[in-house]
Amino acid sequence: MKTSINFKAAKADSEIHNFRKKTFDYIRKDLSSKNEYWQEEKIADRLIKIENYCKEKSGRKLQKNAMPIREAVVVIKEDTTMLELQNLASKLQEELRIRIFQIAIHKDEGHYDKETKEWKPNYHAHLVADWQDLETGKTLKHQSFHYSKMQDIAAECLEMERGVSGSIGRLEAIAFKIQKKEEEYKELVEKIDELKSTLKSQKSESLIVEKTDFLGFKKIVASETIENYQKAIKTYNTELLKNGKEKEALIKSIAALSNKNKGLNAEIMVLKKKNIALITSAEVHVAEKEKYYNSIKNILEKTILSERSKNPNKDRSEKAEVLNEMRDICFRLSTANNIPVTVFNEIFSSSETNGQFFILLRSGSYDGNDYSETSNMEMKKKRKKGRRI
Asked: 16 in the Ramachandran plot: left (φ > 0), alpha (ψ -120 to 50) or beta?
C-alpha cells in the first residue's frame, strides 16, 4: 500500500474537522471511536508564539503571505498507530526541522462502492506543523529534494512501500502501463487491418450509388459512385497514416517502459541483498532496538505532557497517585500501539529514566526534585506482587 505526504497551508477550520468538533455528513459515526488524537498546542496559541518569535528574532512582523502553520494528509494503513506517526513527526523534525504539534488519525471516512455497495475506507492522518525556522524566525525554505526526502521518511516510518516494497509498487505500476500500451497496440493493429479490408469487403457496396430508370432497371450513377470511392480512399489513407504514427509511438512507449522495468528489477535485487546483509548484522539489531526504545520514550514524553495540558490543576503531590497515573498512561500506550509491557518495564528499570518521567508528570519539566529512588521502590514492590505497568 502506498503512502504520501504533502503539506499545504492549514485551513481556518482545520481543528473543527480534525478533532471532530462538529458533525459531518461524510463520516461514519459508528467508526469514529477508532479515531485517535494528539495535541501539543492549539493552532491559535502556536500562531501567537510564532509571530512573537519572528518579531523578536528578525525585528520584523511575520509577513501576511507567510504560511507558518501547515497541514498534511498522510495515507495510512488500518493498523497504523499513533506511535508510528509520532516517529514520523520526530524524523521530520530531525531531518527537515518541521515540528508537528497536532496529529489526528481518521478511520471513519470513506465511501460506498456504487456497484458492490461495499464500504471503501479512507484511512489517513492529519499532521499539523510549525513551519518556522528557529534560526531566522522566518518560515522554513525547502527545495525539491527536501520534499522527495519527505516522501522517503513517511514511507520508512509508516512501513508502507519502504525499500523493496516501494520498488515493487513502482514495478507493478509500470507493468500495468506496459500491459495497457500493448492492449492499445493490439487494438490499433486490428483497426489498421480492418481499414485495409474495408474496400475489399461488402462494405464497399454501400459506396455504389444506383438509380432506377422509368423501366424499372437499376443503373449505377458513375459520377456519384466515383466521388464516394475517392472520399473513402482519402479517409482510409488519412486513418492509415494517423494509426501508423500512433503505432510507432506505442512501440517506442512500450520499449521505454520495458527498459524502466529492467532497471527496477535490478534495483530490487540490490535492495534484497542489502536486506539480507542487514538482517544478519548483530549491530543493526542493537541499533534498531535502541531506535525503537527511543521512539517509545518520545511518545511517552509527549503523552505525559498532553495529560498535563488536559489536567493542569490536578493534584500530583501524592507519590502513589502519580505512580497510578503513570501506570495508566503506559497501559493506554501499550494497548493502542501494540507495545509489549516488558518494554515499559525495561525503560523504567533505569533509575535515571524512571526519575525523569515521574518528574515530568509531576512538574511538567525535567527540573524538580529527584523522584527516582522512591518511585523505583514503589515499582519494585509492585513487580514482586506480579503487577506491571
From this structure: alpha
> Residue 326 is part of which domain span?
285-384
Give the whole-angstrom CA distance, residue 348 versus residue 338.
18
- Top pLDDT among 202 and 300 is at 300
The CA distance from 368 to 90, in Å, is 26
| Burial class for 47, CB neighbours closer than 10 Å (0-12, 13-18, 19+) | middle
Instruction: Find the range with the poorest average confidence among 73-87, 158-172, 226-240, 261-275.
Output: 158-172
52-106 tens-digit pLDDT: 999 999 888 988 888 999 999 999 999 999 999 999 999 999 999 999 999 999 9
Q: Is the dihedral angle over the CA atoms 261, 262, 268, 270 positive or is it negative? A: negative
Amino acid making up residue 72:
A
Nearest to 336, CA basis, from 310, 358, 306: 306
Residues 155, 183 within the same domain: no
Domain identity same for 244 and 185: yes
Helix (H) or strand (E) holding 120: strand 119-121
- The Cα-based distances of 165 to 75, 91, 198, 268 in angstroms read 16, 20, 49, 9
Distance, in Å, from the CA atom of 321 to the CA atom of 31, rounded to the nearest integer, reads 33
Question: HSE-up of 338 (CA within 13 Å, CB side)?
Answer: 4
* Residue 314 in grid coordinates: 490536578
Same domain for 97 and 231, yes or no, is no
Q: What is the DSSP letter of 65?
A: T
Residue at 171 is within a domain: no
How far is residue 85's CA from residue 73's CA, in Å, rounded to a whole number?
12
> Which residues, including other chains, have CB under 8 Å from residue 4's CB and lie 6 or more apart?
74, 75, 151, 154
